[in-house]
Design brief:
The complex is a heterodimer of chains A (190) and B (98).
Chain A lengths: L2 H16 L7 H22 L7 H24 L2 E3 H23 L10 H20 L2 H17 L4 H30 L1
Chain B lengths: L11 H12 E5 H8 L3 H13 L3 E8 L2 E8 L1 H23 L1
Antiparallel strand pairs in B: 1-3, 2-3
The chains are: A mainly alpha (190), B alpha+beta (98).
């Protein structure tokens, strides 16, 4: 083997391994639509004075968790490599889940109750979105994160019903739109 | 100083495998076979040679009742690959000067 051939081979193989874009944007689209619809349902029920308006979250979130777990198990079966990107995502998801558990279960126990719940949640997921965008080198996720941070900061000053609308707008900007763009990119590369 | 290229790495298939493994944390046999275009038999032999040289770690397990071979580059493998690329660059620059 000639030295030039060896160098070309190395370059080819490294590029070929790098080109494995695995993220088809499923989780961004799925969670985006789920939270969007839940926030709007909560808002509509609240506006029509339904006493259990927030029940939608108790149904939608465990459903989302279950679908994600099933999809995760299925994807793992098909996985032929673990890239460094997968590894970084694993750490990010652990950090995100721990933060989410604290926000969802510990925060509502305080006197503050639900007043800061959604704004804090938005700040936490904007953080995860921004880092995801950096790992994937996918700017739309980072622009989405900036929008969610801004909406989250505004939401701290708003009443609960308006926070729901800001949350719905946030997931559209941070999850749904970048998710679809990521999906288009994935289909183009496959 | 002009160093000889590592004979373990200076072979098309073994170099392809190491170049793939340097880019990922770990990869299974199917992935390596697909990317290198090698036959299963030849790939097995070359993986074994890389393992004997201490350049890769091979783990055999089962996935859905099928045998699964997972490969991972070792610290020695990374060092050998870096040295190989460094020497390769020297060769190429000398060629250019001539």
């Amino acid at each position: 083997m000639e030295t030039n051939e060896a160098l070309a081979l190395i370059e080819n193989m490294i590029l070929s391994a790098k080109r494995e874009i695995k993220d088809n944007g499923f989780y961004y689209m799925f969670w985006g639509y789920l939270v969007f619809l839940s926030a709007l349902t909560d808002y509509i029920l609240l506006m029509s004075d339904h006493p259990k308006h927030a029940m939608v979250w108790a149904i939608a979130m465990p459903f989302g968790g279950l679908v994600s777990i099933i999809k995760g198990i299925k994807d793992k079966k098909k996985q032929t490599t673990i890239t460094y990107i997968d590894e970084m995502f694993r750490h990010l998801m652990i950090a995100f889940t721990i933060s989410l558990i604290i926000v969802c279960f510990i925060m509502p126990m305080t006197q503050n109750n639900w007043r800061s719940f959604f704004p804090t949640l938005m700040v936490v997921y904007a953080f995860a979105l921004f880092v995801s965008g950096g790992i994937l080198r996918f700017k739309p996720l980072q622009y989405g994160a900036l929008a969610v941070w801004a909406l989250g900061a505004i939401a701290f000053f708003m009443p609960y019903q308006h926070q729901l609308l800001l949350l719905a707008a946030g997931v559209l900007a941070g999850f749904v739109v970048p998710g679809h763009l990521l999906n288009m990119l994935f289909k183009k590369n496959v | 100083m002009f160093k000889e290229l590592d004979p373990i790495l200076h072979s098309q298939l073994r170099l392809a495998v190491i170049s793939l493994l340097i880019s990922v944390k770990e990869a299974d046999f199917t992935f390596l076979k697909e990317k290198t275009g090698a036959t299963a038999g030849n790939l097995s032999v070359q993986l074994q040679k890389l393992k004997e040289a201490g350049y890769i770690e091979i783990e055999k397990s089962f996935k859905d009742n099928f045998p699964l071979t997972t490969c991972k580059i070792s610290k020695d493998g990374i060092a050998a690959f870096e040295a190989y690329v460094k020497n390769l660059k020297q060769y190429i620059s000398i060629k250019k000067e001539n």
